[in-house]
Amino acid sequence: MKSDLERLQGTWNIVALEMDGQKMPSEGASICIQGKRFTTTAMGATYEGMVVVDASKTPKTFDLKFTAGPEKGNTSFGIYKLDGDTWKICLALTGKKRPQKFATSPGSGFALETLQRDTSATSKHKRQKASESKRVASTKDEQAPRSLADAQPVPELEGEWAMVSCVMAGQPLDQGYIKFGKRVARGNEVTVSMAGQVILKARFTADRTKEPNTMDYVLLHGPRTGKMQYSIYALEGKTLKVCASAPGQPRPADFSSTKGDGRTLTGWRLVKK
Predict the structure, then answer these.
(1) What domains appear along the chain, each with residue ranges and CATH number?
(2) Under DSSP, is residue 228 helix (H, G, I), strand (E, B) or coil?
(3) Is omega for the bond preceding 247 within 30 degrees of 0, making it cis?
(4) Is this prediction's pTM over 0.85?
């Protein structure tokens, strides 16, 4: 019989993510385990370290000991379930004590994740699905462009941005997590992450002639690859405000997010160009 560490070898894609009691997107996030080491990449940074598994505990436990990257020297404590190609984990992202159950709540500081093993067959299916999605992506009120290859650069939106506020479907993100939000835009590509987990990776184009200014995204990773997402934005000095609808939904008419509307309203502060 293989040990749990042996069964965890390989790459795992995050297919469901919840932080502090709130469901979050999980586009493109993954973790790779080789031997006793783990690696994950987000926002251009690589997080590396040692994984320690204890299958004798109830629930089973694991520790992520960071040896390189922004979290170097820190340790995340978690619990896990392993069922074939499905790996479910609950861990503390802010150095708090280990979770005791597979659940999060406002102020808990925990993340609940469901991961699926990335196999060659799965990857092929994803590529085929992404190709099909790119051909048919559209919304009720706007037809998706075939390509953003000719999109004009938006230099004022480039750089690294720190999150200062976030409201998802009317629910404000706990302030303990706000400091972990990052946005990096280079050319016409943008990546957004929370605590090292990729939330959004997309190519985008902006239209400054509209009021409010608009931004269109083509998602580059995850099960919604090729889907369009529409947003509006306002830039004032080094402060950026963005309101985005859920993929495939009409563009927001204003900067608001209410219960059930699927919108995400975020505020950002420029850190570095």
Answers:
(1) 4-119 (2.40.128.320), 151-272 (2.40.128)
(2) strand
(3) no
(4) no
CA atoms of 175 and 40, how far apart (whole Å): 25
Q: Is the peptide bond before 145 cis (omega within 30 degrees of 0)?
A: no
Q: By three-state DSSP, how is residue 258 classified? A: coil
- Amino acid identity, position 198: V
Number of C-beta neighbours around residue 130 at 10 A = 18
C-beta atoms surrounding 16 within 10 Å? 13
Nearest-angstrom CA–CA distance, 4 and 63: 14
Closest CA to 228 of 255, 250, 207: 250
Residue with tokens 């790459």: 11
- Please state, in angstroms and rounded to a whole number, the distance separating the CA atoms of residues 216 and 138: 12
Q: pLDDT tens for residues 55-94? A: 999 999 999 998 987 678 888 899 999 999 999 999 987 6
Q: Is 50 exposed, middle or buried (0-12, 13-18, 19+ CB in 10 A)?
A: middle
